[in-house]
Design a protein that fits this description.
By secondary structure, this protein is of the alpha/beta class. The chain is built from eight helices and nine strands. The protein folds into two domains: about 150 residues, SPOUT methyltransferase, trefoil knot domain (Alpha/beta knot, 3-Layer(aba) Sandwich), CATH 3.40.1280; about 60 residues, tRNA(m1g37)methyltransferase, domain 2 (Trp Operon Repressor, Chain A). About 35% of the residues lie in helices and about 15% in strands. The strands form three sheets. Strands 2-1-6-5-7 form a five-stranded parallel β-sheet.
């Protein structure tokens, strides 16, 4: 997979893309990163990428010309047609399903938004606008890094165990079950006995129920779309009911 990133601050990506899993993914040839400075597609001595908004208002708006030129030039650099993503607070919320959709693309081209946004005409050359949450950031560089990290780890050969990505939070519609490692006993805190039993069927059952329990307590909104049996949904309902019962004040009428 090839991922191109266009930003007015290309230098911020170098340490991130070269570190840890992202660096290893490049070494393995699972992904290729190319970061481009948007200013190289400007045509004035100040290398201007933004201007005042028509109609007045606060802030600056990213100009269309450099972004159009960037998309055209970067597209021509590789025979694979890129799927163009614009980081934008108005975009589709990034979740695991969207990450999987993006990870299936042969090539991504991520445009990092800035200031008050981009000229509306730029959206004509964008395939998808993506937001990483309902809050405002200084620019699209951090969202671009989040997208790159999430997408890269799903590329074949990146993770040591192919099943790792399948069992993590959100991958199966639930939060991940609790994890433990050595020592089995730490300051009076014991690892659940089932995890030491060697019975893989019982371990799988325990993990499934604990994932449901954790999701019910922390993110009950995920249960609506999770693939659960009737018994599992009943279990989740009991977990929530028990929690609500414990929260009631003593002597409360309800």
């Amino acid at each position: 997979m090839r991922i191109d990133i266009v930003s007015i601050f290309p230098d911020v990506f170098e340490p991130v893309l070269a570190s840890s899993m992202l660096g290893i993914a490049q070494q393995k040839g699972a992904v290729e990163f190319r970061v481009h400075d948007l200013r190289q597609w400007t045509d004035d001595k100040h290398r201007t990428t933004d201007d005042y908004p028509f109609g007045g208002g606060h802030g600056m708006v990213m100009k269309p010309e450099p972004l159009f030129r960037a998309v055209r030039a970067v597209t021509e650099a590789d025979p694979r047609v890129p799927f163009v993503v614009l980081t934008c607070p108005q975009g589709r919320r990034l979740d695991q399903r969207l990450v999987e959709e993006l990870a299936a693309k042969e090539r991504l081209l991520i445009l990092c938004g800035r200031y008050e946004g981009v000229d509306e005409r730029v959206r004509e050359i964008v395939d998808l606008e993506v937001s990483i949450g309902d809050y405002v950031l200084t620019g699209g560089e951090l969202p671009a890094m989040v997208i790159v990290d999430a997408v890269t780890r799903l590329q074949p050969g990146v993770l040591a165990s192919p099943s790792s990505a399948e069992e993590e939070s959100f991958s199966w519609g639930l939060l991940e079950y609790p994890q433990y490692t050595r020592p089995a006993s730490f300051e009076g805190r014991e690892v659940p006995a089932v995890l030491l039993s060697g019975d893989h069927k019982k371990i799988a059952q325990w993990r499934r129920l604990e994932a449901i329990r954790r999701t019910a307590l922390r993110r009950p909104d995920l249960l609506e779309s999770a693939d659960l049996t009737e018994d599992e949904r009943a279990f989740a309902a009991r977990v929530i009911a028990e929690r609500d019962s414990e929260r009631k004040e003593p002597g409360s009428d309800g």
